[in-house]
Amino acid sequence: MKSAWASVLIVIGIVVAAFNLRPGVTGLSPLLDAMGAEIHLSAVFLAIIGMLPPLLYGISGFITPRLYNRFSGLTISLAVMIMITAGLGLRAVVDSPAIFLALSILALLGMGIGNVVVPPIVKSYFPDRVALMSTVHVGLLQLGTFIPPLVAVPLASKFEWRGSLLVWAASAAVGIAVWVVIVVLKPAPRSQVSATVVGGSELLRLVKTRRAWALMTMTGLTSFNNFILFTWLPTLLTRSGFDPAFAGAMLALVTAIPLVLGFVLPLLAQKMSTASPIVIAFCCCLAAGYLGLWLIPEVAPVLWTVLLGIGISTFPLALTLITLRSRSAEASAALSGFVQGGGYLMAATGPLIFAFLIQNFDATWPAYAVVLASIAVKFAVSFSACRPGSI
């Protein structure tokens, strides 16, 4: 297969894969009330469904390098699309909350594996265009995060909540078609992956590397705050006296900012010797946004939301650094698994800790103290995480 056509085909594959790694999560939460009117959703169900994404993304981070040790990245990507399609499609037609959760686990495992497998594919097929392709990857990932919550309710008004969920299953089914073609044609990578290294010595080396731990911590604490804001920002605003419609708009805004910056940060990170100034600036924005939301929410809620959105935009930057700081495709697979595996497990604790502190203390300062402390730690590790040179 000619290299130009192979590159086009892989780009299309990366686009459809990246876009489908989030809609099954962000397209669900606006529909929970409609679901609850038809299917009894207990408090346990709501707690579990909110914790599953980061938890399963974290688990996937540790199992994906081992899968890479046995199968090609192309084959794994096809399996990911099948898992997402099956999980999202079947859960939309069941009536049992338990089965809904089980099918969600299938889809989320697919999404988690997809999170890890895309960076080494970028490294394998575009070793000289890492920043550009990272921009495509991160941008479509953020787009797949931003669009679903905006259209979920309008879709449900036309097709009911089941139809709204099925839209994202259909989107993932397009990914199956694309990746079937890729797997059949098997375009040759420009950088060969030594699969025997991915699940073994490379991962063990990273465990002993301070910079790998720093990048994992920076990524994890970013996602820690992401999931807190995605879960709690509307509630915090309504408790401060704003109406639910405004709070929903602010949630859309806080997700839109990383989407926009996700198209800029990869190229900027490649041109800078170290990305730590970006992380430091974003940490300051995140801290200022939290302080404003805590102390004077009624003064400038849009400003606080914008600052929070800028602050959590270190996530697309972290995904780019995984690819930029890897020595090879196999190193990228191992680093992607290590960073995202540990990072998402760390992130899974965020909404739980914040919810416990908000609901069990009369004052809000313990909850805000935790998020501000997480920013301080991220600030400290960013110097090592962003240092130039391969990890």
Automatic annotation (TrEMBL):
Protein's cellular compartments:
Cell membrane
Superkingdom per UniProt: Bacteria
Q: Which residues form a coiled coil?
A: none
Sorted alphabetically, which keywords does the UniProt record give?
Membrane, Transmembrane, Transmembrane helix
Instruction: Give all residue intervals belonging to the Major facilitator superfamily (MFS) profile domain.
Output: 8-390
- One Pfam match, given by its short name, reads MFS_1
GO CC, any one term: plasma membrane
Q: Which coarse location class describes where this protein primarily resides?
A: membrane
Asked whether the UniProt record includes DNA-binding among its keywords, one would answer no
Membrane topology term reads:
Multi-pass membrane protein
Q: One GO MF term, please?
A: transmembrane transporter activity
InterPro entries per the record?
Answer: MFS, MFS_Cyanate_Porter, MFS_dom, MFS_trans_sf
Q: Which residues cross the membrane?
A: 41-59, 71-92, 98-118, 130-153, 165-185, 212-233, 245-268, 275-296, 302-322, 334-359, 365-386
Q: Name the chain's protein.
A: MFS transporter
Phylogenetic classification of the source organism: Bacteria, Bacillati, Actinomycetota, Actinomycetes, Micrococcales
